Amino acid sequence: MRIKNHLCCLALGVLPALAQTGSTAIYTEFQPEPPSAVLDSMKEEVASIMSPGGLRFEWRSLNGLRGSEVFMELAVAKFKGRCDGDIVTLGRADSGPLAWSHVSDGVVLPFTDVDCDRIGRFLKERLMGLEEKTRKRVFGRAIGRVLAHELFHIFARATGHASRNVDKPYYSAADLVADDFSAANEFHILAAKPNGGATPGKSKSPQGGMSIYVKSGCSNCHGSQGQGSKHAPALRVAGRWIDSVMLAARLERGGPKMRRRAKELKVPEPSLAEDELTDLIRFLNALY
To answer: What is the CA radius of gyration of the chain?
Structure first.
């Protein structure tokens, strides 16, 4: 995994909007298309890592791109080499990134490249003895873990790394093939409502968002108006709008650190429901 300074441009139908986290697309391009066993395993692993933090995706192929689709956020993932799990013909492992995201002028762009051949060489010794069906599932799962790492860079607009397992700058082969990737007690600030719906009668305004901001515990560290403090940075840079996907990604990446800080300050752990995001975003964007 590596952040790469590279400018890449592609026109896709994206329209900024305030909505629940879910209006997000991952556009993929393979060379060639992997078998369904690998592809399904990859998608399932990305979902298992990112959906607890409120990040859910619609998967699309760049080859079938339609200009009529509109999403709040998107990422384009291009997979290099063979992603079929056939590792017999691969050579020895070499040094270099397993995947990388693209950055221009310090801004993370919504483009990532994943090197399937390098992942295969990296995992070859651990995959060789596996039955074909299992090997494809484990290989797809490993690709999903690498991709999820890059998606956090993209959606959180972050060039650095965090402390969660998926956010580490380096993975071992054991990390990528382990049956259980996430810690059992992993902390998530954002929580989905049990029925998956919004609370009836909730206000949709910056004022309602301010109440949520205080109730969720954000003001304890980020200041009464999100201006930042000695305990935590400002929640939004002047002139830069934030949306629910970006906020969800940042909350997920920063969750462990925010939990530790809450314990140090002896205040309740931060907590936010998905159906509160819209009001909170309105409040944050109205501050500047």
So the answer is: 20
